[in-house]
Amino acid sequence: MMTGWTALFYKEVLRFWKVGFQTVAAPVLTAVLYLLIFGHVLEDHVQVYNGVNYTAFLIPGLVMMSVLQNAFANSSSSMVQSKIMGNLVFLLLTPLSHWSWFFAYTLSAMVRGMVVGLGVLLATGLFIWQSSSLHVSLLPQEPLWVLVFALSGAAMLGALGLIAGLWAEKFDQMAAFQNFVIMPMTFLSGVFYSIHSLPAFWQGVSHLNPFFYMIDGFRYGFFGQSDVSPWLSLGVVGVSLTLVSALALHLLRIGFKIRG
């Protein structure tokens, strides 16, 4: 028997799963195209960690990027769509607390992020397996670090998507948030490069980006190497997740832009 928040969670999971070709398959295809293009062009031109070729370096970054972007997209699009279509009022009539809303939306976003991330890992693994010229192992050296950063990153972006969805009143506002905040922070987080290849100024800027620590910590789980200590990354991600979750809970509690 479902409780209130589990019913909402189930509804949110079904919402993206019923259009899985768009919400799961399309992001996986996009990540594979990134791998084909960047891996082929830059394989012999970019130096990263010792003993790690560029294609191997790129795959965990693409996996984590997909997790983050899709976790954000799930909670943000659901909230904005419900507000615009007017069916959010039915949730407001229920006795669900702000905690129930938060857990349902954030956990469903985490599910979508993790499903897409796993799909990207499997698809890129198939590509590597079929390529006789690449010798890449996708078995993580520290699987616990992989799981911790994947779950915490998905949770943070799910909560951030909830904040963006509460703030936005129409789809173009939501698109602006994604294009001018989420996308730049994701692409400038070291997905396609090691920050040690950057000039000193831009290395400093990268250290201000919490997305960098999510991806760097996640990559550490695969190779046992990273640009910064995984414990530092875990601390930054933990603090960021706490702050974003607290803000999302506060906005839900006061009914920000959802109650008259």
Q: Could you characterize what this model shows?
A:
With 260 residues, this protein is mostly helical. The protein has one domain. It is built from ten helices and no strands. The chain has helices at residues 4-17, 20-42, 54-85, 88-92, 98-130, 143-167, 171-187, 200-206, 210-223, 230-254. Helix 6 packs antiparallel against helix 9 (210-223). The chain is globular and about 60 Å long.
What secondary-structure arrangement, pairings included, does this model have?
Blueprint: H1 4-17, H2 20-42, H3 54-85, H4 88-92, H5 98-130, H6 143-167, H7 171-187, H8 200-206, H9 210-223, H10 230-254
Helix pairs in contact: 1-5, 2-3, 2-5, 3-5, 3-6, 3-7, 3-9, 5-6, 5-10, 6-9, 6-10, 9-10
Summary of the model, kept short:
This protein has helices at 4-17, 20-42, 54-85, 88-92, 98-130, 143-167, 171-187, 200-206, 210-223, 230-254. By secondary structure, it is mainly alpha-helical.
The shape is globular
Low-confidence stretches: none
Query: Overall pLDDT, averaged?
Result: 89
* Share of β-strand residues: under 5%
Write out key terms for the chains shown.
75% helix; globular; mainly alpha; 0% strand; 260 residues
